[in-house]
Design brief:
This protein is an alpha/beta fold. It contains six helices and nine strands; from the N terminus they run ααβαβαββαβββαββ. Helix 1 runs parallel beside helix 4 and helix 5 crosses helix 6.
Length: about 210
């Protein structure tokens, strides 16, 4: 993995090369990978009440969005890349909001925040701040899921995309620095990605406590 230089403060929660990749590769990217929803989605949805309101961060081509809508959940699907958002709209037949993680300004609004393979692109110094925004967006008692490619050393893949490559301990530490999360589960597993490479992943489910 290639070492990443210092990220400018103006783009602390985003990486321009990564955004550029997804913009340029959007037709191929959204057509790649498995056709069904994420293997983690069912367990996440079972933690929510029927019809709960969910924010999806980084919806990609809309495969998880489609499943959540089909199961009757109220969904606010978002992606930081306009080209990707338009592709998701074609799939789910409804608007997808263009929003980067650092633009999230909701307060106590969502029952769940789903961030499948998306927050792994947030530069490490900015991650606790983004997680604090996710925490703020959740209603008390709300549930959040995210997963990250593992590795322990930030860098770029063969396509030039930035990944924070966190270990399980680093994921736990980032959440601990961001807010008073109640971590429900933290799991390590083997998974793949757009590059076809199998490697370690870390998944986390956390709640915003009811006070």
């Amino acid at each position: 993995m290639e070492a990443l230089g210092t990220t400018s403060s103006d783009h602390a929660a985003r990486d321009q090369a990564t955004l550029g990749f997804y913009a340029d590769a959007s037709p191929v990217y959204v057509a790649s990978g498995p056709g069904g929803a994420s293997r983690h989605l069912d367990a996440f949805l079972r933690l929510l009440a029927p019809g709960a309101r969910i924010l999806e961060l980084g919806c990609g081509g809309g495969r998880d969005s489609e499943e959540m809508l089909a199961r009757g959940f109220k969904l606010d699907a978002t992606d930081g890349v306009p080209e990707i958002a338009r592709k998701a709209e074609e799939r789910i037949g409804r608007p997808v909001r263009v929003m980067r993680f650092d633009e999230l300004d909701a307060v106590d609004e969502y029952d769940g925040v789903w961030a499948h393979a998306s927050l792994l692109h947030v530069p490490r110094p900015a991650l606790p701040g983004v997680l604090a925004l996710v925490f703020r967006a959740l209603k008390p008692g709300g549930t959040h899921f995210a997963n990250f490619k593992g590795g322990g050393c930030e860098g770029r893949d063969a396509f030039g995309r930035y990944f924070n490559y966190l270990t399980a301990d680093e994921v736990r530490a980032a959440y601990g620095r961001s807010a008073e999360w109640d971590i429900q589960s933290l799991t390590e597993y083997l998974g793949g990605g757009y590059d076809g490479v199998q490697g370690p992943w870390v998944g986390i489910t956390a709640r915003k406590p009811v006070k």
